[in-house]
């Protein structure tokens, strides 16, 4: 009788142990799959907006920043906009004094041309990868026209 109890106990343990191991293996595989998916999502969210970044000043002889964005550095930015700032002299007209390709959260102007007695300055901003590849004289087509709108709040007050 004792030997029958031992045999039954062994059978019970073997039938319970088998599915438990399979279940724990399935749980482990599911957990590893979940962890790998989360890591993949995190890696993709780490990547930011790709922008060309370079600087040109009139005194430098290398004007590749102005004429060929593809020959400049590409930066993985954590900012909202790729930008161009092109500053030309008014007299003589069209001579590039400075040129900057960059990435910014809050550009001074999204798309504007400002002129004073000395300079004509072009400000361009856009929101897709490598969109700041132009010469800066034409407006960008993919920028956020509502930029900064949340900062313009109307606060009710007393009428005088």
From TrEMBL:
Xref: InterPro entries = Snake_toxin-like_sf
Domain of life of the native organism: Eukaryota
Q: What is this protein called?
A: (Mediterranean fruit fly) hypothetical protein
């Amino acid at each position: 009788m004792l030997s029958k109890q031992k045999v039954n106990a062994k059978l019970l343990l073997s039938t319970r142990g088998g599915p438990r191991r399979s279940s724990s293996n399935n749980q482990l595989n599911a957990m590893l799959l979940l962890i790998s998916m989360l890591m993949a999502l995190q890696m993709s969210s780490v990547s930011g907006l790709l922008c060309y970044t370079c600087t040109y000043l009139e005194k430098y002889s290398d004007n590749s920043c102005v004429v060929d964005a593809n020959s400049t550095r590409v930066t993985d930015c954590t900012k909202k906009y790729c930008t161009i700032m092109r500053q030309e002299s008014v007299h003589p007209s069209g001579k590039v004094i400075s040129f900057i390709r960059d990435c910014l959260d809050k550009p001074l102007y999204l798309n504007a041309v400002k002129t004073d007695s000395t300079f004509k300055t072009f400000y361009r901003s856009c929101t897709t990868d490598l969109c700041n590849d132009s010469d800066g004289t034409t407006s960008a087509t993919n920028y956020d026209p509502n930029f900064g709108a949340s900062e313009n709040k109307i606060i009710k007050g007393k009428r005088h």
